[in-house]
Amino acid sequence: MAAQSKRFNIATSITLFVIAFALWQIYDLIMLYTNPPILTISLLYLTIPSLILVMFVLFTKLSKSALPKQGYGKPANLSTSKCTILGIVFIIIYILIYLFPAFSAGNFSVRGVSTSPFAIGHRIVSAILLGLAAESVFRGYIFRNLTKNLGFFASLYVSSIFFALYNVSIRDVIGLTLDEVGIYAFTRVLPSFAAGLFLGYFFYKVGWSLLGSATFAIGVRYFLSPIPIVSSGGLAPWWMSVTLDSMSYIIFIFIVDSIIKEPAHVRRRYGLGE
């Protein structure tokens, strides 16, 4: 039974990743080879994460689990308010690090983000759906389930690799030269992997609750997706942006590990020592 359960958890985790990844690639192909109206694009952009959330719920039921066990419960090692505030603090720090090149050069690039009620509402709703969909799948389901069978660190790395691949866009990759593919891997895949490590560790440290990681993911996506509200105007070379991005997640991991103390028996259970 244990071996069967292990195979089931691994198989469903991989399947859910493939579904989520494929849905966004289908969206990219539609955008690449068709020219749909703006309203259609906006609705489709919201439909994809909605479908991913539906699949997450279905897979949770298929696993005979419940949403609280897959991350939709209250934090165990931190109060709800403190967990939310910590997520917001991480958002602010991340944005400041993201804008560091602009601070150092004294130059900001404010994008022409529409202030219409529809555009603002769409940006808010899409940030919520995108953040919840990603965190539910990669932390709530994949990381949580794999940890039961593969161990803590292997599951954290695997879920982070899946998350990095999930953020690859076929629309961006098509037509790139070999050198450009390498730069794309460093600028898109590596930071996403680092983000996955931080978000997974944050998810674990608060007691397997998505509240903190989802708060961070939603806030960052609101600021950055699909167009950053404020950017550094392309002032920094790509390697500096990658370094700042990746280092921010490493710093966050150390902060989380320092201020959130889970029970010692929990740390031993997952191979984290005392």
What can be said about this structure in brief?
By secondary structure, this protein is mostly helical.
Describe the protein.
The protein has a two-stranded antiparallel ribbon. It has helices spanning 2-33, 38-62, 80-98, 100-105, 117-150, 152-166, 170-173, 178-205, 211-224, 238-259, 264-269; strands spanning 109-110, 230-231. Helix content is 75%, strand content 1%. The radius of gyration is 19 Å and the shape is globular. The two termini are 31 Å apart. The protein has 11 helices and 2 strands; from the N terminus they run H-H-H-H-E-H-H-H-H-H-E-H-H. The longest helix is centred in the middle third of the chain and has 34 residues, at 117-150. It is mostly helical. It has one domain.
SSE blueprint:
Layout lengths: L1 H32 L4 H25 L17 H19 L1 H6 L3 E2 L6 H34 L1 H15 L3 H4 L4 H28 L5 H14 L5 E2 L6 H22 L4 H6 L5
Antiparallel strand pairs: 1-2
Helix pairs in contact: 1-2, 1-5, 1-6, 2-5, 3-9, 3-10, 5-6, 5-8, 5-9, 6-8, 8-9, 8-10
Structural features:
single chain; about 270 residues; mainly alpha; two-stranded antiparallel sheet; 2 strands; about 75% helix; globular
Strand order of the largest sheet: 1-2
Percent of sequence in beta strands: under 5%
Characterize the quaternary organization of these chains. single chain
In this structure, how is the largest beta sheet organized?
2 strands, antiparallel
Number of helices: 11
Structural class: mainly alpha
- Unreliably modeled segments: none
Number of strands: 2
Shape: globular
Q: Number of folding domains?
A: 1
**Percentage of residues in helical conformation:** over 70%
Round the mean pLDDT to the nearest integer and report it.
Answer: 90
Amino- and carboxy-terminal Cα gap: 31 Å
Q: Nearest-angstrom radius of gyration?
A: 19 Å
H/E topology pattern: HHHHEHHHHHEHH
